[in-house]
Amino acid sequence: MKKIFKAVIPVLFLSLTIQAQEKSAEGYSPTSLYTLSWTLSLPLGSFSNFINNVSPAGGNFAGRYFLKNGFAAGFEFGWNNFYKKYDRMTYYGDDGLAITGIHYTYAFIVPWKAGAYYYFLPPAIADPYVGLSFGGDYMEEHIMIQEYDIYNTQWGFTLSPEAGVLIKFGKYSHWGANVSAQYWFNTNSFDFSGNNKYSTMQGLNFNIGLTYLMR
Fold it and tell me: Is 13 domain-assigned?
C-alpha cells in the first residue's frame, strides 16, 4: 500500500505541475472589466466648421461583461469639451441685432451608450477587440461675444464603431491598459444665422485608459 502511495504522489505532483504550467502560459479570461480613459478628440465633417481644434479635454468610463466565446456587452458614458477662439468679426442675429468683437465657440458633449464587442484572445496578455455602441448625446453649444453668450442645448442619437486592444499587466493581474480608436457620429445640428453651422456631428476619439478586470 505504501509503495502504491509513493508511486501515486509523484504522478499527482507531476500532473498538477503540468496543469499549472499550462494555465500560467495561457492566463485567464475575465468575466467583466471597467475602464477609466482619457480621450483626445478630433472633429470631422461639418462639425469642424464650427470648431476644428483637437480637444484634449475628454474622458469616459466603460463597463463590459463577457458572455461567451469572446463576445461582451457593455455601457459607456463620457464627456468632450471643444473650444476655439476666433478673430474680431460681426455677427448678425435674426432680430437685426449686430455684435462685433472677438468671439469664442464651445461645444460640450456627454454621450451615453450601450454596445456589443468581440474580443479575439480573452486569455491572452494582449487582447485585440472590435465593437459597436449606440445611444444618446447631450450637448451644449456656446458662442460668446463680449458679454453675450449665445447658446443651445439638445439631445441626439449617436453611433460609434471602435477598435482597440486590452493589455494585461500580468497573466493573473487584475489591472491592465486599454488603447482604442473610436469613430463617432451623431444627429445633432446647429445654425446661428448661417454662421458656424453644422448639420451633423462626426469625430474621431483616441482613448488611453486604466482597466480593472474581474475573474
Answer: no
